[in-house]
Write a structure and sequence with these properties.
The complex is a heterodimer of chains A (483) and B (314).
Chain A (H helix, E strand, L loop, with lengths): L1 H15 L2 H27 L3 E7 L3 H25 L6 H12 L4 H6 L3 H8 L5 E4 L6 H9 L4 E3 L2 E3 L3 E7 L5 E7 L6 H21 L4 H9 L20 H37 L2 H6 L4 H37 L4 H12 L2 H27 L4 H25 L6 H7 L5 H8 L6 H31 L6 H13 L1
Parallel strand pairs in A: 1-2, 1-5
Antiparallel strand pairs in A: 3-4, 5-6
Helix pairs in contact in A: 1-12, 2-12, 3-4, 3-8, 8-9, 10-12, 10-13, 10-14, 10-15, 10-17, 12-13, 12-14, 14-17, 14-18, 15-17
Chain B lengths: L3 E12 L2 E12 L3 E5 L6 H8 L7 E6 L6 H4 L2 E4 L11 H11 L4 H14 L15 H13 L5 E5 L7 H16 L3 E6 L2 H7 L2 E6 L2 E7 H6 L4 E6 L6 H4 L3 E6 L8 E7 L5 H10 L4 E7 L3 H13 L6
Parallel strand pairs in B: 3-7, 3-8, 5-6, 6-7
Antiparallel strand pairs in B: 1-2, 1-4, 8-9, 10-12, 10-13, 11-12
Classes of the chains: A alpha/beta (483), B alpha/beta (314).
Chain lengths: 483, 314
């Protein structure tokens, strides 16, 4: 035990004392934070764009203005729907919805809501604002589009983002000439195209004898889709973020599990190669038994992984908890749901269980392979097949969200090397109990076999100077013994 | 007679069909300094690793303190591997403490002894530095200190002098003598005979995995015939004059200005005085006469040559 402890301790400190460890510890939360913050920042930092429509009869311009208004109303609706689920916001949200339905202005709706909701509502701004064209010809508009001339809005002078010339030909065709220096941006182009197309259809229906009001009613028809879960009481059957969060959390956990196992198994591989090539192994072998080396290294790196996971967990919980306060537009509810899912013991305990077995399987394999190699180049020849095997659960995880209990995932779950990742990701979908117990038993048995075999290979590598040709020699020896 | 603390008995080891060690037996007595000599690739490191239980032999047995290598016995052994094995990113003192603790020392004692050793060997300033920042010689000294910090009863050093400058070689020789004076048994391998000649009570000579000599240094020197260097003038050949006194007589280089050097190996029982007397008596025109001192290096070359030319095993 003394040897195991000392080797584990050295292994642990050798990683934890390096700047690289602290960088990787910080990198994941930082990237997670950036992943959330950057899109939000980009969205909030995007300025309002001003554009003009040159439309001879004005119908299309009105259609585009109406489309922009409807888009904003939809956004407000979606926000209010999210806010309606946030405790304490229900009443004010109901009042706001009524106001919206009554066609009240955004300012009037805002006045009905509390400060946090107002902030969220304020974040919904018009990305595109239609202004009167400062000129009616393409040549005259060009300086405005190039920034050489500016239009005046209440906030001050500003250059024109885009201008569209809409013409209707005698045969009923409509052409749109869209002018803008932002040649790769397509959103405004699409808004204009859809609005004009809608108007063209309305005109076509009208010319076919249908009343304009009927056409508008037809165009406005939209089914209301509610996603309901039969596992919940009928009164509260609607699927919310709280219901879907465990699925996301499990896949994220499985991905983290995969990443950690892969990176720490690599640590074991490289440290073993370093010890073998640098002859540290000789010094160790005359001071400690092979099994103490094997177990010490596995335990030391496992402790490194737990430190990483603990650090990430703390960062994740803090980020999710704080996210509720800082993320607007009802995201706080989603953050709370995610936090609830992440903190669920039904996910946390299996995570650590699967981590232990996944780590022991891959860690001991990498360790054994490392003991056969003197250089990383040698290791690569042995590692390639293993890398392909490790990629399978990564690919399978992509399908878990779509159909967690699909037959193919059911089959993959029984492959012990993949069980930790796939079963963890499938857990919120309540796979059959026999699958959970069966795959776990097979995984435990396989882990024991892998540990035993890795111990043999490590022993051969460390004490018999076995090299990368160990497996081919073993096969030849077995064949020779059979004959 | 003191008990052997290290022994190999009929040990053989083959790597990929090529024999590295062949039926090797020898033992090291407590308190002795034994040199394990042999050319590169003779099987010295393999034999030492087998003796320490690091490598499993194909045949034969190894014993340390009278038993098969085990970790309670190995706690009493200090080992310096041939290619230096230290964690490059570890601090100097931490590395010494780590290996001391693996050998059963308490953290406090290992720390105390490690510091004392570093100070003693002029490395106190680098105690907190990483191994990778040290010079090769310094790192080697650190490795040696790591192998003796726990005050082992048996110290096995595999090529301890390689890579050290002459000053550090002398320091290491002094360390070995100091350890031996304290009663520590030393077994070290080398292919530099001068160290063995200066330090060893006993040598074991290995060639092509086989033992070709095992005995005291004086005894090893006896295996060489005595030799005399002669110089004759006037183109004279001393062969006829010396007759049965010599085993062989060969010219040593080309004759210059009528003078020829000869290397004379004496026959058993003859000595230099007999050769001198015979030359005087027979009127050989001697211009130089010098009895040759025998060195372990010559013994080594002689025995290895003899072995490679089908000589017998001792």
């Amino acid at each position: 035990m003394r040897h195991t402890y000392l080797i584990a301790r050295r292994e642990y400190l050798s990683y934890v004392a390096t700047p690289g460890f602290w960088i990787s510890l910080a990198m994941v939360p930082v990237f997670m934070l950036l992943g959330i913050a950057v899109p939000l920042l980009m969205e909030s930092a995007t300025p309002t764009r001003y554009f003009a429509i040159v439309d001879a009869d004005g119908r299309y311009e009105r259609a585009i203005a109406s489309k922009l208004e409807r888009d904003q109303t939809e956004q407000i609706n979606a926000l209010l729907k999210g806010l309606a689920r946030v405790p304490g916001q229900e009443d004010s949200t109901k009042r706001a919805v009524k106001a919206l339905e009554a066609g009240q202005s955004l300012d009037e709706i805002e006045a009905l809501m509390d400060a946090q909701a107002r902030t969220a509502l304020g974040a919904i701004k018009s990305d595109y604002v239609l202004v009167a064209p400062p000129a009616s010809t393409q040549e005259a508009l060009r300086p405005y589009l190039l920034g050489d001339a500016e239009i005046t809005i209440p906030a001050g002078p500003i250059s024109l983002y885009a201008a569209a010339f809409i013409r209707r030909t005698n045969d009923g065709r409509v052409t749109i000439d869209y002018w803008s220096t932002a040649i790769t941006a397509g959103r405004l182009k699409n808004i204009i195209r859809r609005a004009v197309r809608e108007q063209m259809r309305t005109d076509a229906f009208a010319s076919a004898g249908l009343e304009t009001e009927i056409v508008r009613t037809i165009n406005a028809m939209e089914p209301t889709l509610s996603s309901l879960s039969p596992e919940k009481d009928s009164a509260e059957a609607e699927v919310t973020a709280r219901d879907t969060a465990p699925f996301f959390a499990a896949v994220v956990f499985a991905f983290i599990l995969w990443s950690v196992v892969f990176s720490v198994a690599n640590m074991l591989l490289t440290s073993t190669i370093e010890e073998k090539s640098g002859k540290v192994l000789d010094s160790l072998l005359c001071s400690a038994p092979v099994r103490a080396l094997l177990s010490g290294k596995l335990l030391g790196v496992a402790a490194v992984s737990f430190t990483l996971l603990a650090g990430w967990a703390v960062a994740g919980v803090l980020a999710t908890a704080l996210g509720g306060h800082f993320i607007p537009s009802g995201g706080g509810g989603k953050a709370a749901a995610m936090l609830g899912a992440v903190m669920d013991p039904g996910l946390i305990f299996p995570f650590f269980g699967y981590f232990i077995f996944g780590y022991l399987m891959f860690g001991s394999i990498f360790l054994a392979l490392g003991s056969l190699c003197e250089t990383l180049q040698e290791a690569q020849t042995l590692m390639s097949p293993l890398i392909f095997i490790l990629m399978v659960p990564m690919m399978a995880l992509m399908f878990v969200m779509r159909d967690p209990n699909s037959p193919i995932l059911g089959v993959i779950s029984w492959i012990p090397l993949f069980t930790p990742y796939i079963m963890l990701a499938r857990l919120p979908a309540d796979p059959p109990l026999y699958e959970i117990i069966g795959t776990t038993l097979v995984m435990i048995l396989t882990t024991m076999v892998v540990l035993w075999a890795a111990g043999r290979v490590f022993h051969a590598g460390a004490m018999h100077q076995a090299g990368v040709d160990y497996f081919s020699k073993l096969l030849k020896w077995r064949r020779a013994n059979r004959q | 007679m003191s008990k052997p603390v290290f022994a190999l008995k009929n040990v053989s080891k083959t790597f990929s069909g090529k024999p590295a060690v062949r039926d090797l037996s020898f033992s090291v007595n407590a308190g002795s300094i034994t040199g394990f000599l042999g050319p590169n690739g003779a099987g010295k490191s393999t034999s030492l690793r087998i003796g320490l239980g690091i490598l499993a032999p194909d045949r034969g047995t190894a014993e340390i303190f009278g038993a098969a290598p085990n970790f309670s016995a190995l706690d009493r052994v200090g080992f310096l591997p041939e290619e230096r094995g230290l964690y490059r990113k570890m601090n100097t003192l931490a590395a010494i403490v780590f290996f001391g603790r693996l050998k059963g020392m308490s953290a406090r004692l290992a720390q105390k002894e490690g510091k004392a050793l570093l100070d003693q060997f002029g490395l106190g300033d680098v105690a907190g530095k990483k191994i990778k920042t040290l010079s090769k010689g310094m790192a080697q000294k650190v490795q040696i200190l790591a192998s003796i910090v726990h005050k082992p009863e048996l110290v096995i050093l595999d090529e301890p002098f390689s890579g050290l400058d002459p000053v550090n070689q002398r320091t290491l020789e002094e360390l070995i003598r100091t350890l031996a004076d304290r009663g520590t048994t030393i077994l070290f391998s080398t292919h530099v005979m001068e160290h063995a000649e200066r330090l060893c009570d006993r040598i074991v000579l290995l060639a092509s995995g086989r033992k070709i000599f095992d005995g005291g240094v004086a005894e090893a020197l006896q295996t060489l015939p005595r030799a005399v260097a002669l110089q004759t003038g006037g183109g004279q050949d001393p062969c006829a004059a010396l007759g049965t006194l010599v085993q062989s007589i060969v010219p040593d280089g080309e004759a210059q200005e009528g003078r020829q050097n000869w290397r004379v190996e004496l026959a058993a029982g003859a000595d230099a005085q007999d050769v001198l007397r015979a030359c005087v008596k027979k009127g050989v025109n001697l211009t130089a006469f010098e009895p040759q001192k025998r060195h372990l290096h010559d013994v080594f070359v002689h025995l290895v040559d003899q072995d490679q030319n089908g000589g017998g095993k001792l």
